[in-house]
């Protein structure tokens, strides 16, 4: 009996050693601009699926299975209204989905400008953290077997505002630039999933600055449908390729469709995105 327990214990230890925690890349080793003095504050987990008090922005790396990677990468910005980061359903779960397509995923923890006690603003910190995330992935492309010309950016809800700040915003100025700040921070493709409202240019930006886009929202998602349509209209003015899907229902925050109980179109929306990625050459049929 004692021998059996020892064998089970040693087997458990061996198994746990094989299951490694995902790699985490700190975006600003000396602290994010304006948040340097808070970079050592611990993150807070108010529940099993979200994170608060993000003072030290980072990327969590999720790699495809061995032999599956196709050289494409995606930065994922979860939602949460800038009061939390819905890291599980809109970060880890999408990362696992992209991994199945051979895409290396980087889930972004960005600063939360609307939580109590925050000293940053959406228009500044979201752009800084979003750009830094894109630049970091591109700067480290060789380390992860990534094609630096095949790096996308997807945002859910408030995360969509982070994507917009990078796609439509000017390059942010950094007080103490380092080598990464000289790297191109523009995504090669962009996706907005029930995006939050954000100021976008009244006039269409120069065509070369816009990556091909995928947009998704529910018809009954008040406050998020209009920004989705606005982005599509801007793309139409710029004459840049974009694909938009509006489901008949589903409300807000249906994640990968697993929260919807009735509508098949919502439950299966990731397949529409996959088809689009395949059409553009960023994924292959599985």
CA(first)-CA(last) distance:
47 Å
CATH superfamily: Alpha/Beta hydrolase fold, catalytic domain
Radius of gyration: 19 Å
Enumerate how many helices there are, as a single number: 7
Looking at how many chains there are and whether they match, the oligomeric state comes to single chain
Largest beta sheet: strand ordering: 1-2-4-3-5-6-7-8
How much strand?
5-15%
Protein name: BD-FAE-like domain-containing protein
Signal peptide: 1-21
Domain BD-FAE-like: 60-163
Organism: Fimbriimonas ginsengisoli Gsoil 348
How would you describe this structure to a colleague?
The protein has 286 residues and is α/β, with parallel strands linked by helices. The chain has a single domain (32-280), classed as Rossmann fold (3-Layer(aba) Sandwich), CATH 3.40.50. The protein contains seven helices and eight strands, in the order αβββαβαβαββαβαα. The chain has helices at 2-18, 88-100, 122-139, 158-167, 225-238, 264-267, 269-280, and strands at 24-26, 58-62, 73-77, 104-109, 151-156, 189-193, 213-218, 242-247. The longest helix is centred in the middle third of the chain and has 18 residues, at 122-139. The N and C termini lie far apart (47 Å).
